[in-house]
Structure formats: C-alpha cells, structure tokens
Amino acid sequence: MTEVVWLEGEHGAVLSMPAPLPLAVQRRVDAGLMRVIGAPAAEAPQGIPEPGDVPMPSNGASRADWERYALSQGMPPAKAEGMTRNQLSQAMRLRAVS
C-alpha cells in the first residue's frame, strides 16, 4: 500500500499526495507555501474539520471555503480536490436538501 502525506495548500485546501512527495511539491513545503498536516498514517488528516464545525458557505464563497465545508460533511479529500467551486457548492446544496 502506498503511504500518503496530507497537505494544506496555499488557500486552505486539504489534499493528499503519495510519499515521498514529488520534488516540486516538496519545494513548496520547504518554502512555506504548503504545510504537512498528516504524515503517512492510516487515520484521517488533522486538517479535516469535524461535521458541524464549518457552517455552509455563502453563494459567493471561495472554492477553498466550499472544499473545507465538503470535507467537514464527509466528502473524501480526493473527490473534493478534483471538483470546481460550483461543483462543490452544488453537491453540498443537493446533499442539504435530501
């Protein structure tokens, strides 16, 4: 099984990368542009908020706000990482209605 490193991106997005980190990503970490929030482990990263900790963002909120909310509602980080702001917003609003 591939070990995973959890990172907080420049705009607060939480993402996972295989360990060891690619050189370009490691350089961003070394420069302080990204932050390691979870070393290789089987548990969830520390940066994912608990359900209820993050209120639903407003219509004009940033993609990072919508991603943080989606993660707090249980969306897998890999799925949220590949979605646009509008896709995240729509998915979370549909979930709230159902």
Question: How would you characterize this protein structure?
Answer:
The N and C termini lie far apart (36 Å). Helix 2 (63-72) runs parallel beside helix 4. Strands 2-1-3 form a 3-stranded antiparallel β-sheet. Helices cover 37% and strands 14% of the residues. It has 2 domains: 4-38, no CATH class; 48-98, no CATH class. The radius of gyration is 14 Å and the shape is elongated. It has helices at 23-30, 63-72, 77-81, 85-97, and strands at 4-8, 14-18, 35-38. Mean pLDDT is 79; it is low at 41-45.
Tags for this entry?
98 residues; alpha+beta; three-stranded antiparallel β-sheet
Summary?
The protein is of the alpha+beta class.
